[in-house]
Design brief:
- It is a single chain.
- The protein has one domain (10-280).
- It has 12 helices and no strands.
- The protein has helices at residues 8-33, 39-66, 73-101, 113-135, 137-140, 149-176, 181-202, 204-214, 218-237, 239-242, 250-258, 260-280.
- The longest helix is centred in the N-terminal third of the chain and has 29 residues, at 73-101.
- The protein is globular and about 55 Å long.
- The protein starts with 7 loop residues before the first helix and ends in a 15-residue tail after the last helix.
């Protein structure tokens, strides 16, 4: 298996969409950078960004799911991703409502906290299960490539990265379980999110491997987008480690790195739109619903 970049023609079609993701990320970064002195404004920036990319993720994954026939393997994959994105948007809505309705009371004191806890857990379970199914897509179709040293190394690097960025957060969250109710709910949210992010980072390996294997075309960009989304979560989860390495105030650097959530969700939505586009230009390869790139 040798890496082949996607074809120039397919890349030219994707470039404007990738540019949109970059613009969204830069706008969010700029908005955060100019809001450090105003906590209320910083919260509003995060709220607006959460709604924007949350909606993009829901629309993109739903578009991909609806482009497949009922019973199709990939319809189930994208359907679960849509459920996860939708529940994530519900989580954003709960925080947003409380922030605007009761601005002087922290969300940790809100009666909506346990509701959000349940929503976050379900969102992460749905998304993680979907990514596992997605990573197994080519194995389901009988196109799984043979093992190779490069693939093994990629798996190992992904596993080490997942443990490195997620391990400390898991230990910290477990330590808060069993304390007061609000702290326990917050710890459960952290556990669910961290475990899901660790699995996402781990699955970057098989997803990028498929992107290499496809050797260009519309469908390859679906996998590239999913792989890049997973890679973004690696840096997002490592923000506490990376912040001291960046120039300036570490606390401000953490907030800047937190904006990477925008790219992670936007890339997920983009992958959905690319999947829909690829499907309209390709023919079914097997009964599993895997499509063959045509450009």
């Amino acid at each position: 298996m040798s890496p082949h970049p996607p074809s120039g023609r397919a890349a030219s079609r994707v470039a404007p969409w990738m540019g949109t993701v970059v613009v969204l990320q830069l706008v969010h970064l700029a908005a955060v950078a100019t809001s450090f002195q105003d906590g209320r404004q910083l919260a509003l920036v995060g709220d607006a960004a959460g709604w924007t990319v949350g909606l993009l993720a829901v629309l993109g994954t739903a578009a991909a799911a609806l482009s497949f026939a009922r019973g199709d393997y990939l319809r189930r994959v994208w359907g679960l991703l849509t459920v996860g994105a939708g529940l994530s948007l519900v989580s954003t809505a709960l925080r947003s409502y409380w922030m605007h309705a009761v601005p002087d009371v922290p969300f940790t004191n809100s009666p909506l906290l346990p509701v959000r806890m349940g929503v976050v857990v379900l969102a992460n379970v749905s998304t993680t299960f979907a990514l596992v199914l997605l990573a197994r897509t080519y194995r389901q179709s009988g196109l799984q490539p043979p093992p190779s040293p490069r693939a093994t190394l990629l798996w190992a690097v992904s596993a080490v990265a997942a443990l490195a960025v997620g391990g400390p957060a898991l230990v910290a969250a477990v330590g808060h379980l069993g304390q007061d109710f609000a702290t326990t709910c917050t710890a459960v949210i952290a556990l669910a999110s961290t475990l899901a992010d660790m699995m996402t980072i781990l699955l970057v390996a098989p997803i990028l491997r498929v992107a290499y294997m496809l050797r260009g075309g519309r469908l390859a960009w679906v996998w590239w987008a999913m792989g890049m989304s997973g890679a973004v979560w690696l840096f997002y989860d490592a923000r506490e480690w990376l912040a001291p390495l960046l120039p300036g105030n570490p606390a401000e650097a953490v907030e800047l790195l937190r904006t990477l959530r925008t790219s992670g969700l936007a890339m997920l939505g983009l992958a959905g739109w690319l999947q829909r586009s690829a499907l309209t230009a390709a023919q079914p390869a097997s009964s599993t619903g895997v499509v063959v790139p045509t450009a």
